[in-house]
Structure formats: C-alpha cells, structure tokens
Amino acid sequence: MRALSKSKLLAYRQCRKRLWLEVRRPELRGDSESSTEATFRIGHQVGDLARQLYDPKNKGVLIDFKKGGMDAALVQTAAALQQPSPIFEAGFSACGASAFADVLLPVKRAGSLAWRMIEVKSSTSVKDYYHDDIAVQAFVAKAAGVNLHSTSVAHIDRTFVYK
User: Cα-flanking dihedrals φ and ψ of residue 158, to 5°?
Assistant: First the structure.
C-alpha cells in the first residue's frame, strides 16, 4: 500500500477525481514543466529567506530529503527533535501519511521541549486551503509523537517597504 503524502491528501480535499488522476494518470496533468520549475524555484527562494529570518545565527538543522530519501529524512528529523534548535523541512510519517514541515521552532512548554510549526508560503495572502495544509502536517507530526505547541502560516507581506 502506498503512503499518502500531504499533497495527495490536499488534492483529495480539493477534488476526489484530481487525486485519482494524480495517482493513476499523472501524464494527464495540465501544468507545464516550465511553470512547475518556476514555482519550485520561487518556493526555494522563499524557503531560503525563511531560514535566514527564523535562524539568523545559522544554528538550525536543514533536513535534506534528497540525501537518502524519506527514511533518512525521518531519522534525521528524529535526531534533530532532541535538540532545541530550529529545524527546516522536518519529515514525519504516521497513520499511513507523510508530511514535511517548513519550519519547526523550539519552545519551552511546561518545562519540556515543544515545537512551533510554521508553514511558509510564497503568496502575499493566506488562502483557505493553507489551513488544510498545516492541519495535515500537524496531524501527522502529532501522530508521529512530536510535542506541538502551536501552528501558523507565514506569507509575504506585500505592504513592507525597505527603507
């Protein structure tokens, strides 16, 4: 049985047929490679900025899914959760689903280590489905044993003007 990813769960929430098509007939997707690549590139740039913002001293841990795949990412995440340092791209798997959190920030909660989860978006506004997005991540993280303190969505502030 194939594990469900966060993106597959969100596809299902949007449209059951969309999920079926993504799993059974991915070649029918209507998006072009160039637009997908541009979206990924912008997402990576915003992710880099988020790491600078949430970890200005560069003491955090970046989980690299590309090095070793999902299993290695889960092991790296479990090790990183033992230290009170920011974690970026933390991977979780539980209840037949997997998800990656953009940012986990350590907080003290009743004397123990807990985590603030932040989903970073390259949008200038919060869209309704972002709530589903972080809800899935929080569910999987909690089911995997992560002590979550809070969740939030970060997006680009289009009103900001650099002086």
Answer: -75, -10
